[in-house]
């Protein structure tokens, strides 16, 4: 059983992505790791090269700036990396996603278990979305996503690269027959919303162009009038009391709570959110 890893990144230094930690977190699992680095001038390519692991193979791409709708360019860039994978399984992580070392044995065991069961096209991971700091998670974001796919040419990234579909039919894996998917037993630690508020605002403004081009809807256009990112739901987020991946140790140690002393159980807004969205942890 051969396992490929794949990812893409651009402007990872400018927008403070934990891409090095992300890559290091799956290196023990994969036999090769394809990193698609988009053309940029912030030192991202040099940062990836500095990891210096022989498993890593870098491909360079130029982003198609005309493809500025619904985040489709993210799937395109993901598929550039996927096309270079030679393993039986292909393990996808985005540049702000990290795997916990405690979950590595579960992931390997899941791939071994389903390796010969061709009906299983993907393995599902549980998500922890950190927002504002390393001690706050948003329980209302999506809870599960496919991050390992069977690399037989049938499956590709779709939409804005959150999920995968069948090439032939466009059928989304997570809405397909139950036998298409199996649980990995592992978690993805998503750190995309843990940044300095000004850096996060700049990243979100850049992403808005990828989704909406030069004509964003009014709510999105508001981003361009702000001086810093506002974590609107921060006070009703769930406390995280577990451990972070070891590769994130330095970032977590240097981090600070966005607003110390938060207690969501004392906030009326929390109960309003539960009534509206349901209690999800």
Topology:
Layout (H helix, E strand, L loop, with lengths): L2 E7 L9 H8 L5 E7 L5 H6 L6 E6 L10 H11 L6 E4 L4 E3 L4 H11 L7 E10 L4 E2 L6 E7 L4 E4 L4 E4 L14 E13 L3 H16 L5 H4 L16 E2 L9 H6 L13 H10 L4
Parallel strand pairs: 1-2, 1-4, 2-3, 6-11
Antiparallel strand pairs: 4-8, 5-11, 6-8, 7-12, 9-10
What can you tell me about this protein's structure?
The chain is α/β, with parallel strands linked by helices and 281 residues long. It is built from eight helices and twelve strands. The strands form three sheets. The protein has an eight-stranded mixed beta sheet. 35% of the residues are buried.
Instruction: Record the strand order, biggest sheet.
Output: 3-2-1-4-8-6-11-5
Largest sheet: 8 strands, mixed
Tally of helical runs: 8
Mean pLDDT figure: 95
Order of helices and strands: EHEHEHEEHEEEEEEHHEHH
Ends distance: 37 Å
Instruction: Quote the beta fraction.
Output: 15-25%
What is the alpha-carbon Rg in Å? Answer: 19 Å
């Amino acid at each position: 059983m051969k396992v490929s890893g794949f990812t893409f990144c651009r402007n990872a230094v400018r927008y403070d992505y934990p891409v090095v930690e992300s890559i290091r977190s799956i290196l023990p699992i994969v036999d090769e790791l394809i990193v698609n680095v988009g053309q940029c001038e912030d030192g991202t390519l040099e940062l990836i090269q500095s990891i210096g692991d022989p498993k890593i193979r870098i491909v360079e791409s130029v982003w198609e700036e005309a493809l500025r709708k619904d985040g489709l360019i993210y799937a395109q860039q993901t598929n550039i990396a996927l096309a270079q994978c030679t393993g039986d399984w292909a393990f996808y992580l985005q540049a702000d996603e990290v795997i916990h070392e405690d979950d590595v044995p579960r992931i390997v065991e899941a791939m071994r278990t389903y390796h010969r069961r061709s009906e299983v096209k993907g393995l599902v991971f549980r998500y922890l979305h950190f927002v504002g700091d390393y001690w706050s998670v948003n329980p209302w974001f999506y809870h599960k996503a496919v991050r390992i796919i069977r690399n037989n040419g049938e499956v590709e990234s779709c939409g804005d690269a959150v999920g995968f579909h069948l090439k032939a039919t466009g059928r989304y894996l997570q809405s397909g027959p139950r036998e298409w998917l199996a649980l990995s037993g592992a978690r993805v630690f998503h750190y995309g919303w843990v940044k300095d508020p000004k850096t996060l605002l700049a990243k979100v403004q850049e992403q808005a162009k990828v989704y909406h081009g030069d004509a964003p809807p009014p709510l999105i256009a508001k981003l361009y009038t702000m001086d810093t990112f506002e974590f609107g739901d921060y006070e009703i987020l769930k406390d995280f009391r577990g451990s972070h991946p070891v590769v994130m140790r330095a970032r977590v140690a240097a981090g600070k709570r966005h607003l110390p002393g938060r207690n969501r159980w004392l906030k009326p807004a929390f109960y309003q959110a539960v009534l509206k969205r349901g209690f999800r942890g």
